[in-house]
Specification:
Uridine Diphospho-n-acetylenolpyruvylglucosamine Reductase, domain 3; Vanillyl-alcohol Oxidase, Chain A, domain 3; 15 helices; alpha+beta; Uridine Diphospho-n-acetylenolpyruvylglucosamine Reductase, domain 2; five-stranded antiparallel beta sheet
């Protein structure tokens, strides 16, 4: 019987059932079943695995939006962060594009599975050291026994730490703490040319600021040191309904200014009893032993009387409140339908007219049966990451039209039509001073990205040139022209 290979000694690369031994930079192809000879070069030895099977590559070609399907040549399942450094050096040397899975595709290149890097430790000083593949739900479970919590969490907890830090990370507590990227103390990254480096606001600040909200253009984030704050035990949960978008945003501005709620978001849903939309403020007041006074929290708000919903939830149950809805969508298959999302930060002075105009023309076919409309009030002053581009007004709003294209349902519009609608809506919002929150599906050109980053583009381009000189990282974003 042949002995089982160890993870350290064997590169598990399978193509048509054969071991991959090398890469030919002339033909841009992998070699299987024979020793690599010039001009081919041997594939590095790894602790983890390189996967070349069609199934592994096809899975890595997909993204959350289920719209783009760029097939890579290989998938890396790293044994540790050193494997990522080894393979990025290899890719940089031979001009092979590479990207962490979920951030973008790498057509004909290497996709890196980050999920094996999921270690978490909570330090005595009340911070968390988290590998990039860990999910925010896992970090929450690790922090709560210490009476601590991340200050900002996205509504869906099963996102990776590295993934959200590459874009920003907005949540219902952002009115108090900014974005997730505003609560990072230090990063460990692997640059495009394979160097493993630590960076912070004081140590390699150019790299630190290029990684946070940098869409993976300069380095692969492998570990982050994050702030934690005291966790409450309970949440007084409010859902307050409004007849119009303007009425909702008026109260959102009020609670943003006085800070009465610890958590505040907004949403719109189709009116089940007639035409149009229902708007509501979802708010939470955190506490431990003494519940807050509801009448004080609701004083001066102009929601529709008799329609409010008020409840008390445990802190984790509140944060994980979307789990059952997501489980249902997965059970029906809708989770795998195309998701051409549209997300933009709007200047507060333009929000009411723009949102009202969009909502007037929006139908169920434009968002799909499981689509969602979100409206977050945010203070500009707490959003400090240079590459998280937002309007320069004291109050801004994140407006999200989270579309689902389900052609088999007969109701939703096709993905291509929704993508075109996204671009048209983007152009309108940009004219008003809006900026994309790049977690969705808006077709953009390199010129669009240059305009998006504006005065920060030069710093991003300089960091790209310094830390990824071969320009291999995360090409699917389309920020820098190919070649």
């Amino acid at each position: 019987m042949r002995p089982l290979p160890t993870r350290r000694s064997v590169l598990s690369g399978i193509a048509a059932g054969a071991l991959v031994t090398g890469f030919n930079p002339v033909t841009r192809s992998w070699l299987a079943g024979r020793a690599a000879r010039p001009p081919a070069v041997p594939v590095p030895r790894l602790k983890g695995r390189l996967l070349f099977s069609k199934a592994a590559r096809s899975a890595a070609a997909d993204d959350f939006g289920h719209i783009v399907h760029d097939l890579p040549w290989a998938v890396l399942q790293p044994g540790d962060a050193d494997d990522i450094a080894i393979m990025l050096r290899f890719c940089s040397r031979h001009g092979i594009p590479a990207a962490p899975r979920g951030q973008a595709q790498a057509l004909g290149g290497l996709v890196i599975e980050m999920s094996p890097l999921d270690a978490i430790s909570v330090t005595p000083d009340g911070t968390a050291i988290v590998q990039a593949g860990a999910r925010w739900s896992a970090l929450l479970h690790a922090a709560l026994p210490h009476g601590l919590t991340p200050p900002v969490l996205t509504d869906y907890l099963e996102l990776s730490v590295g993934g959200t830090l590459s874009v920003g990370g907005i949540g219902g507590t952002s009115p108090h703490y900014g974005a997730q990227v505003d609560n990072v103390l230090e990063l460990e990254v692997i640059t495009g040319d394979g160097h493993r480096l630590a960076c912070s606001p004081d140590r390699r600040p150019d790299l630190f600021h290029a990684v946070l909200s940098g869409l993976g253009q300069c380095a692969v984030l492998v570990r982050a040191t994050l702030k934690l704050v005291p966790a409450p035990s309970h949440v007084r949960h409010f859902i307050l309904y409004y007849p119009t978008a303007d009425a909702l945003t008026a109260d959102q501005r009020l609670v943003l200014a006085d800070g009465r709620f610890d958590f505040a978001e907004g949403e719109a849903e189709l009116n089940p009893d007639g035409p149009g939309w229902l708007y509501y403020l979802e708010a939470g007041a955190y506490y431990d032993s003494q519940p807050p006074d509801d009448s004080e929290l609701l004083a001066g708000l102009h929601f529709e009387p008799g329609k409010q919903q008020v409840s008390t939830l445990g802190y984790f149950a509140f944060l994980d409140r979307l789990a059952s809805a997501v489980a249902f969508l997965k059970s029906t298959g809708e989770w795998n339908d195309p998701h051409p999302w549209w997300n933009m930060f709007l200047p507060g002075t333009a929000t009411d007219s723009f949102v009202s105009g969009v909502m007037t023309g929006l139908t169920e076919a434009d968002i799909g049966a499981s689509g969602v409309i979100l409206l977050y009030p945010l203070p500009r002053g707490l959003l400090r990451a240079p590459l998280l581009r937002v309007p320069d007004e004291p109050v801004i709003f994140l407006f999200s039209v989270l579309r689902t294209a389900a052609p088999d349902s007969g109701g939703a519009l096709p993905a291509a039509e929704l993508l075109a609608a996204n671009r048209a809506l983007f152009d309108q919002a940009r004219e008003l001073g809006g900026y994309e929150y790049p977690i969705g599906s808006i077709p953009l050109t390199p010129a669009d990205w240059r305009q998006h980053f504006g005065p920060e583009f030069a710093a991003l381009a300089a960091a790209r040139h310094r830390y990824d000189p071969a320009g291999i990282l995360t090409p699917g974003q389309g920020i820098f022209p190919a070649g």
